[in-house]
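User: Could you check the structure of this?
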Amino acid sequence: MEDSNAGFSRPSSNTLLQVQEKASLLVEALPYMQRFAGERIVVKFGGHAMKSPQIQESFARDVTLLRSIGINVTVVHGGGPQIGSLLQKMNIESHFVDGMRVTNDETMKAVQMVLMGQVNPMLVQLINAAGGRSIGLSGVDGQLLQAQRLKAKGTDIGRVGVVSRVDDSELRLLSDAGFIPVVAPIGIDTHNQETLNINADYAASAIAEHMLARKLVLMTDVEGIKGPDGEVISTLTLNRAEQWIEEGVINGGMIPKLQCAFEALRSGVEKVHILDGCVKHALLLELFTDEGVGT
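Assistant: Sure, the predicted structure tokens are below.
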């Protein structure tokens, strides 16, 4: 009689523990997957995470996984570091007012080259390589994002726009057909005469509002919102956030992101997540675990 276990060995206790931990994570994620299936989520991907090929690939796999379990994902991307790098090569100095890049005609050419010619097709290719079905768009396509010129502190900062109208019909068609739309935040003015550079956070917020998204996720350069003790807050209400801005607990570059969050929440988006895009699989950890990794 042969030993049925011949040629086989039991996994070590350490290996078994690691496998069980992975299984526990899947069990923890299951109710969230079931809850969000069929829902719409808008994800803004930008900041220094976009400089890392490893993080880009990880992000592409994450959104592909979301789509594969029935979550309708729309991605809006930035490209600030790449734009800054190209402007430097072109010997064009960058100026900012209230965090907005002053954008003359030459700068706008560089912005379009990077966002529509480099970053957008790169993300589409990565998502397709990960097994997803992705299509790249800009806010100009189908007049997705109509915008008007924005003034910062009363200063004309050139071809920088604020969204005035969203036509999300194209996004809905693509999403409902199983695609992952990837949107470059370039808008068109109401006269269809000039393109405008739109902050990716604001573009994502406007799209989330009009698509009645369940969630808006802002993947940025910080790990979340920090409270008075300097620790990241896992959950924060709109009223408390406004209070902390008044008290100076929240300041600087986080304020514009929170203004995007406020607009989205008041327009019907259920939750807004702010998290560090440089953390590998941050999107999955935030959406599918009890503790999350951001605010």
